[in-house]
Amino acid sequence: MNAQTLYDKLWNSHLVRTEADGTALIYIDRHLVHEVTSPQAFEGMRMAHRKPWRVGSILAVPDHNVPTKNLAAGITDPISRLQVETLDANCAELGITEFKMGDIRQGVVHVMGPEQGATLPGMTVVCGDSHTSTHGAFGALAHGIGTSEVEHVMATQCLVAKKSKTMLVKVDGELGRGVTSKDIALEVIGMIGTAGGTGYAIEFGGDTIRGLSMEGRMTLCNMAIEAGARAGMVAADEVTFEYIKGRPFAPQASQWDAAVTYWRTLHSDAGAKFDTTITVDAAKIKPQVTWGTSPEMVLSVDGIVPDPANITDAVKRSDTERALQYMGLKANTPITEIKIDKVFIGSCTNGRIEDMRAAAAVAKGGKVAANVKLAMVVPGSGLVKAQAEQEGLDKIFIAAGFEWRDPGCSMCLAMNDDRLSSGERCASTSNRNFEGRQGQGGRTHLVSPAMAAAAAIAGHFVDVSKQ
Amino acid sequence: MQKFEKFSGLVAPLDRANVDTDAIIPKQFLKSIKRSGFGPYAFDEWRYLDHGEPGMDCSTRPLNKDFVLNQTRYQGAQVLLARENFGCGSSREHAPWALDDYGFRVVIAPSFADIFFNNCFKNGMLPIKLAADKVDELFKAVEAKSGYALVVDLVQQTLTTPDGAVYKFEVDEFRKHCLLNGLDDIGLTLQHKADISAFETKHRASQPWLFA
Question: Structure pTM?
Fold first, then answer.
């Protein structure tokens, strides 16, 4: 048999049928659902008198609209509240497992799933959310879908898809001090662009990736979509199995050995052919900071803001001019001279316990700078919050002047009350620096948790690798 | 789903790359539990000078005169001409819903983000990939001539310009078939119910922990 990539194996093991033109039906093992992209799907099912194919494959949680303070008071915005109540009602009606607001297991869907052991190697995972690529960190085929596809998967347990091309992003070498998987992700996006991965499933490999924790791998796969790839993935290994063992939805003891035996096959075979391969030297990566309105507009922290006058391509030059204007930045400004107004630490990219620890390690003993109006830490789930509190991280943050909030998507996309005002500049551990993403007129700089915490203390960007 | 038929549509040019779905429909409008009514809020932050919220009456809001879709000559446009990586970012299907509700049936660009591209077909919309130099030609032509319309013919897979020039485009056979016949994906898939059940039985036997 020919050497196969991990993606080939995952694809082939879920193939129900293929049409002559390559359009295929792919079986879906896990369907994660949140309140924003599901109501129209449930409504469509109801109108067509259809029932979910396999209720047990679905796991639901509200996250986008959830308030991160005064949780007991509930959601004040009636439109947001209705959306969450609609999810509750749909799940109750159909018998779908849901971790509601107030349940300690509630959190950002891409933090909750893995934390519960609901994401397993070899699975196909979908969710009506582009950051579903996160779950590929487990050696799973996971990607975001639209609402029509949410309805389709619920009704048929399958997705209509065409096979993607494959890209290997091979990262070798030792990461420098203060350099994290977030920096690898941003470095790769800077290299290939936000459309560089369009049409591809990306596998992250190499010894640097093998050395990452599951949290680090999830951050990396989470950002695959920002490179344009619907799916990112990492081969399953001992780190994966260790993370999964004992979690509520993990295979039970009697099935564990059989599962692990299978999972050990979930890697690209030696000699497997990828359509494209990118190599990255981990030792050369510095902490990254985005300066513009697309994740590909990124620089090392020691860089200077680009000058449109030096760009020959007309479309690129006007994009750069527009981005600088929106961001309120002057060409040739050193990144470390950019002052910030707010800090957001959290999201499905960087809201896990390791992220909390990294930020707390930098914040410890410091004070949020006077020019920073708000520095908030939003744990990715109730369980992350509880774990962080058990480790005393909340006290470190609070002593340093950060706000310690309840879990949710929060200011990553600002659907709840957490948002930037027009013109405010934010150091954010989230995934998108698009215009208006964190609030109309808000200016987002994407960074790692350590870089965000360091910026909060200094009041401007600083190089954590030099601290 | 509405059948996709041949039509002649006014073209509006949106001359910027990497137009993301947050820009197409900002997050505050995603709180709706409906599929319709997003058109007035399409490109909300670019289109209006004030801050939009769900439920606002957009007919009285101050328009951003500099935004291309607000120009008189592009009113009633059904074809959106765009640049690279159109529809990147969030998977929100509210983006094609908003474009559709606004009146666009077709988006032409050199490249699209995967999820957006897919979502268009599920809503009877046709995203067309054309080579960057051809898109460039179209931008110049559209800007040069008021009332510039293209005839979109999915059967022939052609775009015909006002002066009779023809651009061919590619489309997946399956997607073309679904668009032309207004077919519902779910109904089609359920024709293969037996295949799905057979696969599921085999899958359950080999990986029982997935069905615990």
Answer: 0.96
